[in-house]
Write a structure and sequence with these properties.
Helix content: 25-40%
Strand content: 15-25%
Number of helices: 8
Bound molecules: zinc ion
Oligomer: single chain
Distance between the termini: 73 Å
Strand order of the largest sheet: 1-2-3-4-5-6-7
Shape: globular
Largest sheet: 7 strands, mixed
Order of helices and strands: HEEEEHEHEHEEEEEEHEEEHHH
């Protein structure tokens, strides 16, 4: 390389670096840590960290489903207050896990009611007691067992409980007019799920609950889930729900076959794929294998 081309190349690299740095800086200045995506004029999803939040703004107040963590829920509250001066009517928890309920506390004194399945409330209280952070909680003040509905503005919100799944207290939350369903952590879109056996999870019933959801909501419904794998969307369809149900089914079948073949727990947990269940197997696979093993070993 001669001297002039060295200088030319170096300056090109420097210019590229400057551009790159400027862009990163500009992005940092402009892009907040969170994202809001509107699904229609009044209803949207909020993502920052933890489980996806769904919200709707009606003429009678706002409704929020799940609350992530105290700092991220405060970001959401600040953004929603710019959009509406009306009060927060309802905060709904799809289930008790911390990445969906730790932010409840940010709604203290702001929201009129917190709603969840009765088992979700019991689990929230139990976990907070264990972690000795009861003073940082805002628990549900309204609970239900099978179905719960309320009309707010033109929207009607219904919660359905189809039995144990990811925990023993997961709700499907349907905004009927918008026809949007928050499935919480009942679907992990192309990602190995956390299965909370201590929190009452049951894979066998989880599969049935997903089938029931597919029958309950019509084909035009838009579904939102708590978590998705890298590169996959948290806005999902019935076919994604079916694919996740199939994955759970194949996980149980695989572990059952291994147990029948006399395989040890250690050998079963060594598997790197679930045959017929997924092409996205990998990180985190030991959790569903372990949960399936614990669920099935009782019957062997
Ligand atoms: Zn979650
Ligand atoms: Zn969860």
């Amino acid at each position: 390389m001669n001297r002039s081309s060295f200088i030319r190349n170096s300056s090109t690299i420097l210019a590229a670096l400057a551009l790159c740095t400027n862009k990163t800086m500009a992005q940092l200045m402009q892009d907040p840590a969170w994202k809001i995506k509107m699904l229609n004029d009044n209803t949207g999803i909020f993502s920052e960290k933890g489980g996806t939040i769904l919200f709707t703004i009606t003429k009678e107040g706002m409704v929020v489903v799940d609350s992530q963590f105290p700092d991220s829920s405060q970001h959401l509250i600040d953004e929603l207050k710019k959009k509406s001066e009306l009060p927060f009517r309802l905060l709904i928890n799809t289930h008790h896990h911390g990445d969906h309920t730790s932010g409840n506390i940010s709604f203290k004194g702001l929201v009129q009611h917190v709603v969840a399945h009765e088992n979700s409330k019991i689990n929230q209280e139990k976990v907070a007691k264990e972690k000795k952070n009861e003073d940082q909680q805002l628990y549900p003040d309204q609970t239900f067992t099978d179905t719960w509905c309320e009309k707010i503005g033109k929207e009607e919100i219904c919660l359905y409980y189809f039995g144990a799944g990811h925990t023993n207290g997961d709700s499907f939350v349907h905004f009927k007019k918008a026809n949007i369903v928050h499935v919480g952590d009942l679907v992990f879109n192309r990602r190995h799920p956390y299965i909370d056996r201590a929190g009452g999870a049951n894979i066998t019933n989880w599969i049935k609950a997903l089938d029931k959801a597919i029958d309950t909501f019509n084909d035009k419904a838009v579904f939102v889930c708590g978590h998705a794998g890298e590169g996959f969307d948290i806005i999902i369809t019935k076919s994604d729900i079916k694919a996740f149900g199939n994955y759970l089914d194949k996980t149980l079948q695989f572990v059952a076959a291994e147990l029948t073949a006399g395989k040890s727990k250690e050998d079963i947990l060594k598997a790197t794929t679930i045959p017929g269940g997924t092409e996205w197997a990998g990180k985190g696979i030991e959790r569903p294998l372990m949960a399936a093993y614990e669920e099935l070993i009782l019957t062997y």
